[in-house]
């Protein structure tokens, strides 16, 4: 590792450790700072201890109630902010140079977004930036956020109600989940809406855990004891096929069933007092301002919305 020309016995500090130190100041503890940085807490603790040993001073006071910066740690964190800001500017400049040379864009999208929105969005974007080579990855919402956090794509699109700490996001569309059945199902002939308790007590055809659709439903019914799913499937298309086949009630995006509702192949079932509206979001890693082709894509989508 390169040594400072002014003090040959001192090594340059680890930027990741400085980020953790600033995170303790911002989030109130080492655990929260580690989560925001996407680092396991034992690794974060070791990194901070190495920084303390390197700088020759105690930066973090540890106790049963948690951890907090010492006065010396507060001073170092203040200067670390400027160092990290300069490092981010360096990385942004390097990324811009790379983007100019490569003009590549890797997009990750959750199933619902990929099936019903991304083709139109990318088609419009091609008309604006035909110099960009686009690659699309399709996952569930949790996997999309993982791909973004790990740097395996430039931007992701998810339907989950929340995004993990450390990622930035912006709304790009609105959507709503609905309960659907075939016309032959008893619920299709009900004159009164279902209660939330009735829905929660019924085995349903649902998406797998980790999908935004499943997360939205589970969050809405979190106060109720629920049976195991009737079927748990890995895509909205599979859930829709099961619903059309009369397997049982299903919960799907209006984007996925609009044509089948219009044709009468499926019927919506009203549920009293249940709001399954949701916001679809673009997600990306810091910095907050999304640059390059990914930024151009998100701005185009937001303007169109």
TrEMBL record:
Name the keywords, alphabetized: DNA-binding, Transcription, Transcription regulation
GO molecular function list: DNA-binding transcription factor activity; transcription cis-regulatory region binding
Residues annotated as domain HTH lysR-type: 13-70
Would the keyword RNA-binding turn up in this protein's UniProt record? no
Pfam families assigned = HTH_1, LysR_substrate
Keyword set includes DNA-binding: yes
Give the highest taxon in the source lineage: Bacteria
Family membership:
Belongs to the LysR transcriptional regulatory family.
Record-given protein name: LysR family transcriptional regulator
Which species is the source of this protein?
Answer: Rhodococcus aetherivorans
Question: In the record, what lineage is assigned to the organism producing the protein?
Answer: Bacteria, Bacillati, Actinomycetota, Actinomycetes, Mycobacteriales
